[in-house]
């Protein structure tokens, strides 16, 4: 068993009004609010961040945003900056989720700036990486992961590399019901760890790497038992308090 602390994050994506978000976090708190041996994170939409932060205050549940801009301020209509997030006690941020990359044009070059900016601002970044189905079929999985990891971490100071959380999400498994086999997940995540070790050996040993992609209570145990998997970035299953709490409990086992 690794001494890396387990990390379970729920990405709510564009779901839940403010009232619904408060209802969900209130249902979660009795189940996971006192968990001390796993980092438990929820990532609501922007409008619900303040409400969920206030509801979770004093509990073990941390609140992360789903994206942020690399600049502190400026003419960037529709964007949100790190100071805006830290002002309301948001603790971290998802960066480079495949939906942001595919649907919103997020680039590796932008992430090269966002990841160190998050760290400088006191936010824990979750850097998302992963290949499409076509890339996997072409045998390009490692090439894609190498590019994403090396670009995303290039400007992170070596002494802070271990603070970044990396989420491996095979794009073909996100929201599709398809799940990487344990062998596929372990191979990809071990490769990601080796890439971080290429920057700094100790950081690669310490960095936490998550699996994401249709992870649910019924497949969580098998995936979380893999030697290089330190947790999960959970999508749909995080929108149900019972399902998400079950995954957290599985991570504690």
In words, what does this structure look like?
The protein has 253 residues and is an alpha/beta fold. The protein has a single domain (6-252), classed as Aldolase class I (TIM Barrel, Alpha-Beta Barrel), CATH 3.20.20. It contains eleven helices and eight strands. The protein has helices at residues 18-32, 49-56, 82-87, 98-104, 108-120, 133-137, 141-153, 182-199, 201-206, 217-224, 241-252; strands spanning 6-11, 38-43, 61-65, 92-95, 124-129, 165-168, 208-211, 231-234. Strands 1-2-3-4-5-6-7-8 form an eight-stranded parallel β-barrel, surrounded by six helices. Helix 1 packs parallel to helix 2 (49-56) and helix 1 packs parallel to helix 11 (241-252). The chain is globular and about 45 Å long. The termini are close together.
Mean pLDDT: 94
**Principal-axes shape call:** globular
Largest sheet: 8 strands, parallel, barrel
What name does the CATH topology carry? TIM Barrel
């Amino acid at each position: 068993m690794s001494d890396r602390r387990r990390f379970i994050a729920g990405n709510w994506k564009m779901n839940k009004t403010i009232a619904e978000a408060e209802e969900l976090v209130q249902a979660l708190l009795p189940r996971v609010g006192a968990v001390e041996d796993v980092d438990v994170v929820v990532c609501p939409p922007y409008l619900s961040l303040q409400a969920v932060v206030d509801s979770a205050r004093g509990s073990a549940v941390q609140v992360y945003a789903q994206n942020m801009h690399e600049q502190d301020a400026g003419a960037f209509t529709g964007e949100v900056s790190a100071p805006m997030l830290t002002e309301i006690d948001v603790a971290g941020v998802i960066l480079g989720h495949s939906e942001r990359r595919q649907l919103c044009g997020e680039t590796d070059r932008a992430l090269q700036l966002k990841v160190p900016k998050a760290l400088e601002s006191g936010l824990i970044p979750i850097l998302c990486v992963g290949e499409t189905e076509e890339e996997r079929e072409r045998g390009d999985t490692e090439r894609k992961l190498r590019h994403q990891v090396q670009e995303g971490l290039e400007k992170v100071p070596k002494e802070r590399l271990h603070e970044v959380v990396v989420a491996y999400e095979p794009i073909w498994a996100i929201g599709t019901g398809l799940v990487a086999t344990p062998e596929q997940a372990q191979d990809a995540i071990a490769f990601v760890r080796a890439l971080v070790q290429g920057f700094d050996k100790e950081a690669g040993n310490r960095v936490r790497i998550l699996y994401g992609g249709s992870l649910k209570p019924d497949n969580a145990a098998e995936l979380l038992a893999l030697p290089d998997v330190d947790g999960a970035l959970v999508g749909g299953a995080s929108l149900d308090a019972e399902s998400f709490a079950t995954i957290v409990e599985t991570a504690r086992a």
